[in-house]
Structures are given as C-alpha cells and as structure tokens.
Design a protein that fits this description.
single chain; eight-stranded parallel β-barrel; alpha/beta; binds the ligand O=C(O)c1ccccc1NCC(=O)[C@H](O)[C@H](O)COP(=O)(O)O; TIM Barrel; EC 4.1.1.48; Aldolase_TIM
C-alpha cells in the first residue's frame, strides 16, 4: 500500500466518524456555508508579483515528520498577512499532517479577503460541505485518488457552493482523467512523487505542454529558492504553493520575500 492508499483508507474511517458527530445537514446550517468567498484565481491573476504565492500552514508531513514543534496557525497567519500572500493553504488532515478543520475556521475568522485553500484528501461530498461550512474559498481535488465520475461530482458540488477548485495532477494518467469532460479552472502540478517522496521542479516543466492554455497553472511542492520561482515564472506558472521552506524559516515574512519578492 502506498502513502496515498493509506491516507485514503484512514480518511474513509474519519469521514464515517465525522458524519456521526455532525450531520451533512448540520454542516449546511453553519454560518460560513452561506457566506460569499474570495477568489484565489483572481488574486493570482491580479498580483503585481511575477508569480503569486500560496503559503502553506502545516505542522507535519509523512515525508518530513514534524516541521514546526510550536505550530500556531494564528501566529503564522499574521506573518503571511504581513507578507501579502496571494492565498493560504491550510492542512486540515489530522492523522498524517497534524492539522485540523478547526484551523481553517480559526483563520477564516481573521480574514475575509485572503483566499483559503482547504488542503486535504477530499473523496466524499461531506468534505466539500465541511470545507464551505468552515470557511474555505478553495478546495483541493487530487486526481490520483478520485475516479473520473467522483472528480466531476465533487468539482460540480464545489462550484455550486461558490467554492473554487484547485485540481492536482502528478502524471499523464491524472491529466487525461481531469481533462476528460471539462477544463479545470486551476491545475496544480505536484512536483512530489508520492511513491519516493522525491521532488523536482523539472516535473512541472515536463507536464506543462500537456495542459490547456486557459487553465491557471500552479506548481506545488519542493520549492525552496527564488531561482526556482523565476524558472517557473518563465515557464508561465502563475502561482507557487510552498510549505516546508516557509514553515521552517526563522522569519516567515523574509522567506516569502526571498521567494517571490515584496509587494
Ligand atoms: O508532503 C508529503 O509528505 C505528502 C505526502 C503524501 C501526500 C501529500 C504530501 N504533501 C502534500 C503537499 O502537497 C505539500 O504539503 C505541498 O505541496 C507543499 O509542499 P512543500 O513546499 O514541499 O512542503
């Protein structure tokens, strides 16, 4: 069983438990479920930076273990806001990343204008309602863990709720799957091979030519230097999703400026 299989298997158990605690109709009565959301796509298109940054909040990961002992999302939020990030990715998976859906809510209560990505392994419509109810503006749909019909169902549900969707691909099979019926609004190319955990931004370069021009392209994982960001910008990438480099920095504001410049 690879890491994604293990995550998905655990996720099914967690979703079943969550449904016992709070029903889907209860999620639909949460205040943010009916609130309007801000647009990550717009924020990335309109940024004066050559490439926009989606700064990630994560305490730990399967590949790197604990990244930040004293992990406080609200403290990180102040830094990300000061650095004027174009979006924030919040890990809500508890078992493998030590995140929580409550972290999303905590941050949503601090901002109405910074787009918030619910970063999780979404496989069930319950999680889309949950994302909206807890204040997300965008959800991540990972092609590798979804059947084409499931992908389409979750995508359409998100759009009906006014959420945006970041579709994650890692290889040609993923690309074929997500381009089957429609063009996704934003595609994230994951540079991390989840079987080996190796990352290489060359991966973005290799897949780029197979993606439609009208989709907004984001490069994810293993981005640590301004040089890499410049390379990605020259390839036409509009956003970079960065976790480890920022979370582990002594000064997160400086780390973001170093990567993408001040604005
Ligand atoms: O990072 C992992 O170990 C991992 C393992 C299994 C599934 C997903 C995983 N990472 C999620 C991500 O996509 C990253 O958190 C994100 O792209 C940021 O990456 P990085 O800048 O390298 O921290």
């Amino acid at each position: 069983m690879n890491i994604l299989d293990r995550i998905v298997s655990k996720k099914k158990e967690i979703i079943a438990e969550s449904k016992q605690r709070i029903s889907q109709s209860e999620l639909r009565s949460l205040p943010y479920y009916h609130a309007s959301t801000c647009s990550l796509r717009k924020s990335l298109i309109e940024t004066p930076r050559p490439v926009g940054i989606i700064a990630e909040m994560k305490k730990a990961s399967p590949s790197k273990g604990v990244l930040m002992e004293d992990y406080q999302p609200t403290v990180l939020f102040k830094k990300y806001k000061e650095a004027k990030v174009e979006g924030i990715s919040i890990l809500t998976d508890q078992e493998f990343f030590q995140g929580s859906i409550n972290h999303l809510l905590q941050i949503r209560e601090l901002t109405e204008t910074i787009p918030l990505l619910r970063k999780d392994f979404i496989i069930d419509p319950y999680q889309v309602d949950e994302a909206k109810g807890y204040g997300a503006s965008v959800i991540l749909l990972i092609a590798a863990i979804l059947e084409p019909s499931q992908y389409q169902e979750l995508y359409l549900q998100a759009k009906e709720l006014g959420l945006e969707v970041l579709t994650e691909v890692h290889d040609q099979d993923d690309i074929q799957k997500v381009l089957k019926d429609f063009t996704p609004e934003m595609i994230g190319i994951n540079n991390r091979d989840l079987t080996t955990f190796n990352t290489s931004i060359q991966h973005t370069h290799q897949l780029l030519g197979q993606l439609p021009k009208e989709t907004l392209l984001i490069s994810e994982s293993g981005i640590h230097s301004h040089e890499q960001v410049e390379t990605l910008s020259n390839l036409g990438i509009k956003g970079v999703l960065v976790g480890e480099r920022i979370v582990k920095a002594a000064n997160q504001v400086e780390a973001i400026y170093e990567l993408v410049g001040k604005r």
